[in-house]
Write a structure and sequence with these properties.
Length: 213
């Protein structure tokens, strides 16, 4: 069996799902422009000024999600995906996913985005498995803390544990991502594919002969 691993944001999707969802919440008047602006500021610092993935999640969680009822948030996620998801797919990557499913490959989505966003997208795509960053609720169902962040290294660690369970070789792995932050998983895969890669990853793809989609 082969294992096909897909990043979500800017890979299967043309956008960052968390950013797009935040914009949707603002349009629905669920959050203020002030809150949205702060979130965009933190995202820009991560994207262009080197803010870590951990720090980005901490800032966004504190500003936007902490204290919200998870069930209420999930209702907004459902409405958001029903309205917008079909428009957000990057067709070349989506086609690769469909081809992998048709071959009977083990399909896996690994995303640093929150689990309450990634899970329903993964279910709509009917993949075999998924993992995401975990935003944990308290006993009342309100989001309380960040349980785990699925960064590039944690993605790679999960894949290593998975292939040990599946008893397959690293050469059976194909990994798709847009970001150099996912180098840990791209480098351990038998085939690495840069999907509209960022500048640093594009350079690496060209140097190593990795496919660019």
């Amino acid at each position: 069996m082969k294992l096909c691993v897909f990043d979500l944001d800017h890979t299967l999707l043309t956008v960052n799902s968390s950013y797009r969802f935040g914009t949707y919440l603002y349009q629905q008047k669920f959050i203020s422009f002030f809150t949205l602006s702060h979130c965009l500021f933190y995202y820009a610092r991560h994207k262009f000024l080197g803010m870590s993935m951990q720090k980005l999640h901490e800032k966004i969680f504190q500003k936007l999600f902490k204290g919200l009822y998870l069930k209420e948030l999930q209702k907004h996620v459902k409405n958001f995906l029903d309205l917008e998801l079909i428009k957000l797919f990057y067709e070349p990557a989506l086609q690769r996913l469909q081809e992998a499913k048709q071959r009977g490959d083990y399909t896996l989505i690994l995303s640093a985005s929150p689990d309450f966003l990634v899970q329903p997208i993964a279910e709509k795509l009917d993949v075999k498995n998924w993992r995401a960053s975990v935003y944990a609720p308290d006993q009342e169902g309100k989001l309380e803390y960040l349980s785990s962040i699925l960064d590039g290294l944690n993605k790679a660690n999960y894949v290593v544990s998975l292939i040990n369970q599946m008893q397959i070789d690293y050469t059976a792995i194909t990994a798709y991502s847009d970001s150099y932050l996912d180098l840990p998983i791209l480098e351990l895969s038998g085939k690495a594919v840069g999907v509209v890669p960022d500048n640093y990853l594009r350079k690496i793809c060209q140097e190593r002969g990795w496919e660019i989609l």
